[in-house]
Amino acid sequence: MRTKVAIIGAGPAGLLLGQLLHKFGIDNVILERQSPDYVLGRIRAGLLEEGTVALLDEVGAATRAHAEGLLHEGIELAFSGRRHRIDMKAATGKTVMIYGQTEVTLDLMNARKAAGLTSIYEAADVEPHDFDGGHPRVTWVKDGVTHEIDCDFIAGCDGFHGISRASVKPPAIETFERVYPFGWLGILSETPPVSHELIYSNHARGFALCTMRSMHRSRYYVQCSLDDHIDQWPDDRFWDELKRRLDQKAVDQLVTGPSIEKSIAPLRSFVAEPMRFGRMFLAGDAAHIVPPTGAKGLNLAASDAHYLSVALREYYDEKSSAGIDAYSDKALKRVWKAVRFSWWMTSMLHKFPDTGTIGARIQLAELDYVTSSKAAMTSLAENYVGLPF
Length: 389
Ligand code: APR
Ligand code: PHB
What we know:
It contains 13 helices and 19 strands.
């Protein structure tokens, strides 16, 4: 087998990259370890920046997002028993779209199928080879048989635990990491959202977030201990804890119901530098992870896919390596800004075990400042709706 770009991983980064390359006439093959159903079963965040929606539009995969997605013009920050609105539309002219990552993945999968592009699911032992030389290739095992594909480039879009980044040995790669001392316990329920916009709550018992997937499906999170297990969190305990962390009006309006999904996720900031190793590029979670406070993960995967697709188009159409040479620096510039923003939102909103009462008071002062200074509000809004790319 041979292709121009072998993409490892069929998450949002790999699927979007595949469609963008196809649009530019660059053939590509996707190798994914899991089955399509497994990939679609993972519940992730659900907030798209306008730039991400524009990329889905570019590849003709945004029809359902435009029909079913919810446009939000603001968010609310809750602290000291009150809610304060940040009007993102007024501050930036931009909105964000609530539309689940699972739906984005499904729409991209369908677009790929419609375009007749090759995707190999349930590929075991995927391995990138010889990306330091001129003839990279990828091998994998399917149904007990080893296969190989030759390519010009490898795109490592295989998430945080993938094989692409793991194939690069120090000192060629440098990593930066912070693991936060808590997790998010999330549930999905077939109930109307408590409010028409998202509520981010700083509370003495810990952070809480009220978000949604539609006007009849809600997603709620509470900060939990890293030692917690979902078995310790029956629905009643979850709803009680959430209520304790919300203002009275929200408690009165909250509609509870059985959870249809429940999971605990750790919070981590992580960046690998550079994002290019010879003829292999990293994109999305394979190169960086941000804590979900601010929902930047999927949007960074989209901007990486954009930068990489444009760089590869330049390589094939203009016979110039300038774009691929600049990819890592360009992508990392935007990545680090989102890493900073997600870290800052996380720091301002969560209960930290080691910062004491002074840390909690400083958070309240910062929240008061952010919700009363036009400059601070604009800065939050500008980052939340997504920096340009
Ligand atoms: N071989 C082949 N495929 C692999 C391998 C491997 N060794 N390891 C992982 N994969 C696949 C995973 O099964 C997954 O489908 O790579 C894909 C990576 O997808 P994501 O984890 O969704 O990462 P990405 O596409 O970069 O999307 C980033 O996803 O994790 C969220 O918060 C994150 O929203 C962000 C988005
Ligand atoms: C979500 O809808 O799951 C979501 C939204 C915003 C966040 C994090 C998660 O900051």
